[in-house]
Amino acid sequence: MNRPRRTDPGRRERILDAVLDLIARDGSAGATYRSVAEGADVPMGSMTYHFPTRDDMLLAAFERLADQMHGRFDQIMAEPLDGEDPRERVVQLIVTQGAGYGRDMVLSAELYALAVRDERYRVLIQSWMERSRASLRRHFPAEAAPVIDALQEGLVLHSHISTEPFDVDRVRSAVYRLIEPTAISRAEVPAEEAR
């Protein structure tokens, strides 16, 4: 079947979106050049043009995922507090990421599995964590940011895999118990540095 050639400038992004869709549905092994080309509706030649190897394609797709997920994270942490306890932002992060983002959790689990085996994915995750911690440092001391980041990530994961109810009151109770009021500070880094 001959398809008209596309000259759209968003082809690379469309390929990456197809990669993430296929990984979410079939796991990393399901994202082959052929399946991605079909999913993105691009010729096979576009695959190797944009991504010389399948590993390049997977890594770029997970970088896109990290950017998208951090964008949501950073937006929540960037909103003005207006006297609000910053722990409420952590609650909002957990509840927001825990509800309606099941696909992203599946993709994150695939990324974690790759990171266990491949240092390039560990570097990607480390960079993602550093960005998240910079966002948290707007409201919490630097030494508390890694712990808060691990707390929110663990609670989001549990919200997706637990069979127990996981409501906002339960999340708030855990966050307030685990983040002491003494761990709260005003912004330690300029907002633009956290982006």
Automatic annotation (TrEMBL):
The UniProt record lists the keyword Transcription: yes
Domain HTH tetR-type: 9-69
UniProt keyword annotations, A-Z: DNA-binding, Transcription, Transcription regulation
Pfam family name, one: TetR_N
Protein's recorded name: TetR/AcrR family transcriptional regulator
Gene3D superfamilies found in the cross-reference section: Tetracycline Repressor, domain 2 (1.10.357.10)
Species for this entry: Promicromonospora alba
Highest taxon listed in the record's lineage: Bacteria
